[in-house]
From TrEMBL:
Catalyzed chemical reaction(s): dCMP + ATP = dCDP + ADP; CMP + ATP = CDP + ADP
This protein's name: Cytidylate kinase
Family: Belongs to the cytidylate kinase family. Type 1 subfamily.
Statement: the UniProt record of this protein carries the keyword Iron: no
Top-level taxonomy: Bacteria, Pseudomonadati, Pseudomonadota, Alphaproteobacteria, Acetobacterales
Amino acid sequence: MKALIIAIDGPAAAGKGTLAVALAQHLGLPHLDTGLLYRAVGRLMLLEGRDCEGDDASDVAARLQPSDLKRDDLRLPEVDRAASLVAAQPAVRAALLQRQRDFAAAHGAVMDGRDIGTAVFPDADIKLFVTASAHARAVRRYQQYHGHDPSAAEISQLKAEIEARDHIDSARSVSPLKRAEDAILIETDDLTPDQVLARALDIVARHPKMTAENR
């Protein structure tokens, strides 16, 4: 396997994380969920009783430890919001940028987040932008949290929260969520995880590094 760097960006609950894990396993590449970095910063800010919107979180980002990324309380709704708020701070993004680049420098990687293809690795070998409708993402996120289908009211509430997160991520001044010009779009509303993986693998197989390796 060549030292490919694959950037997978997209909004919350679109399926980018599921794809990134499966793709990394299939290709034998390291994987980094960069969203966990911001979730960990947000969680620590909450634990320390600090304001994720008003307080500078760069000192927390600078002292993150590997164990902070393995906490079992990083996928809670309050951490979603905290992560979005601290991710909007330029100093936090600066503190985490080199950590992300160093992860993939030696052996390549599959990295998923919101600015991998635009800011972290603008020269990534392959860029994918994975998205889905807010409704589909709300259903998925509810099922992830609760393990069963939501009611109409629950979908409506979670959809509003997801759309609010999308707005924060897309409107921030530094490294906003957006599709890189050369990123290949994968819309996952009507696709199973296996179908999304198959589509991504087809894209990877056609990359020059892969075709050269197979000659």
